[in-house]
Design brief:
Layout: H1 17-30, H2 36-43, H3 47-59, E1 63-68, E2 77-82, H4 84-87, H5 94-109, H6 113-133, H7 139-152, E3 157-162, E4 165-170, H8 176-181, H9 184-197, E5 201-205, E6 214-218
Antiparallel strand pairs: 1-2, 3-4, 4-6, 5-6
Protein name: Transcriptional regulator
Organism: Deinococcus psychrotolerans
Pfam families: HTH_11 (PF08279)
């Protein structure tokens, strides 16, 4: 009799909840009509199990549900769709697209064109942030308000004092590839902070140059 190899349970591939949720998001993205039944069939899971994962993803803000008639007829069904946060879990090529666009701006419109484009973007940011900072009187309060606003834009920023000196640090760069290819982006950022705070500001460290943070000495 031929011996049959038995694979220990510890070596069987695991279907972790996280991996199942990843595959579920992929299935929702691919499906024209992502009902619980359709998704359960696609992932070879029971409908109750799928519903639990769907609820978790709704609670996390990755999915939304709406009532639709498949093909425009019949009884309405609950159909799951990706939210903006759910879409953001999939790889994007925004940085490379932005770099390519700026390179074309540079080649088509000549020296200084990229800086003008970035200056226009920073002007939009100034018009958004200036009213927020105007509610605060002293430099420290303004700087803390600026850090809070930057966090909402993905900069992981904080304002702090050392020996009476104010600093602004940013532990994350939302567009590191762009900043590395076009240092002008960092320059317009520095200009923006000077205009918003109305005091001298110097950059002491920069993420795009290999530092652990972008650090600004303020005042």
């Amino acid at each position: 009799m031929t011996a049959v190899a038995v694979i220990p349970a510890a070596h069987l591939p695991e279907r972790t909840p996280e991996r199942t949720k990843d595959k579920l998001l992929e299935a929702v993205k691919e499906c024209d009509c992502a009902t619980a039944q359709t998704l359960a069939d696609k992932l070879n899971l029971s409908v109750p199990a799928i519903r639990r994962h769907l609820q978790d993803l709704q609670d996390a803000g990755h999915l939304d549900v709406r009532s639709e008639k498949p093909g425009g007829r019949g009884r309405p069904q609950h159909v799951y769709v990706l939210t903006e946060a759910g879409e953001a879990t999939f790889p994007k090529a925004y940085a490379s697209l932005c770099v390519d666009v700026l390179r074309h701006v540079d080649s088509l419109f000549g020296e200084g064109a990229v800086m003008r484009v970035l200056d226009a973007r920073q002007l939009d940011l100034y018009e958004t942030l200036a009213p927020l900072l105007s509610r605060h009187g002293d430099l420290g309060s303004k700087l803390e308000a600026l850090a809070e606003a930057l966090c909402q834009h993905g900069y992981a920023a904080r304002a702090y004092q050392e020996g009476g000196q104010w600093y602004l640090s940013q532990r994350n760069c939302p567009a590191p590839a762009v900043a590395k290819a076009f240092p002008e982006l960092c320059q317009t950022e520095l200009n923006l902070y000077r205009e918003l705070l109305g005091v001298p500001i110097s950059r002491e460290a920069r993420l795009s140059c290999g530092a652990a943070e972008c650090r600004y000495k303020v005042g």
